[in-house]
Amino acid sequence: MKRMLLVFIALVSLSFSAFAAVNLNTATQAELETLEGVGPVKAQAILDYRKKNGGFKSIDDLNKVPGFGDKTVASLKGKVAVSGSAAAAAPTDSMAKARAAKAEKAAAEKAAADKKK
User: Fold this and answer.
1) Which comes out higher in pLDDT, residue 110 or 73?
2) Above 80 in pLDDT, residue 53?
3) Max CA-CA distance within the chain?
4) With bands split at pLDDT 50, 70 and 90, how would you rate the model's confidence at 28?
5) Is 68 helix (H, G, I), strand (E, B) or coil?
6) How far apart are CA 76 and CA 61, in angstroms?
């Protein structure tokens, strides 16, 4: 019963984060990887670009990131945002980190329980 409750909580928290756009200027690697078509390599490329260039001014700046082309950028529009400063987005970012941590914990617990079977 506990396991089902944890899975339910993880799914609910993930569904809420699915409706929120991921801010390219504040997202963690894990948050970027939740985007369809963005894996660890592309997420790291976004972080590297952001560190080198001081952030994204528009979503179209993704075209400047290695591994991103017009098709990928077009598919991410509506799922990503660049608005707000890092300071203003900090509370949201920390809440997103907490949700991601809870989801990861629930997934790990489920995996451990499945191994026991």
Assistant:
1) 73
2) yes
3) 50
4) very high
5) coil
6) 12
97 CB-near residues (< 8 Å, 6+ apart): 28, 31
CA distance 105 to 31: 15
Question: d(Cα 108, Cα 104) in Å, to the nearest integer?
Answer: 6
Q: Which domains does the chain possess? A: 2-116 (1.10.150.320)
Q: Tell me the CB-side half-sphere exposure of residue 107, using CA atoms within 13 A.
A: 9
Number of residues that make up the chain: 117
pTM attached to this predicted model: 0.57
Q: Tokens 């990503």, residue?
A: 80
What are 76-106's pLDDT values in tens digits? 998 999 985 443 334 455 666 666 776 677 6
Q: Which of 51, 77, 52 is nearest to 62 (CA)?
A: 77
Burial of 21 (0-12, 13-18, 19+ CB in 10 A): middle
